[in-house]
Amino acid sequence: MAVNENIYGTVLKNSAFLCDSERRGPIHRSVDPELQGRTSLNGCNTLYETFQRSISLHPNQPCLGERLIDSNGNAGPYIFKSYSECGM
């Protein structure tokens, strides 16, 4: 596996290899200099705050989807819950 590939062999175009961790595998960082070293994004410091912000900005947009598998093993269409439904 090349250093800028994920475990599936997909080349990671928006990240750069930083180092390899024995316990956790390769560590990548954003190649966007505006994001490097940031500890918050749009005033959000945690994943929870980011999710809450997304709920307020996009309440009716699709957030979390699932596909049901029929008895023959065929995947059906994705069925999505909106941000507001997921935030309840």
Please, could you describe this protein's structure?
The chain is an alpha+beta fold and 88 residues long. It folds into 2 domains: 1-38, no CATH class; 42-88, no CATH class. The chain has 2 helices and 4 strands; from the N terminus they run ββαββα. The protein has helices spanning 47-57, 83-86; strands at 15-21, 25-30, 62-69, 75-82. The strands form 2 sheets. It has a two-stranded antiparallel ribbon. A hairpin with a 3-residue loop joins strand 1 (15-21) and strand 2. The longest helix is centred in the middle third of the chain and has 11 residues, at 47-57. The termini are far apart. The mean pLDDT is 79.
How does the SSE layout of this entry go?
Layout: E1 15-21, E2 25-30, H1 47-57, E3 62-69, E4 75-82, H2 83-86
Antiparallel strand pairs: 1-2, 3-4
In brief:
The chain is α+β, with helices and mostly antiparallel strands. It is 17% helix and 33% strand. The longest helix is centred in the middle third of the chain and has 11 residues.
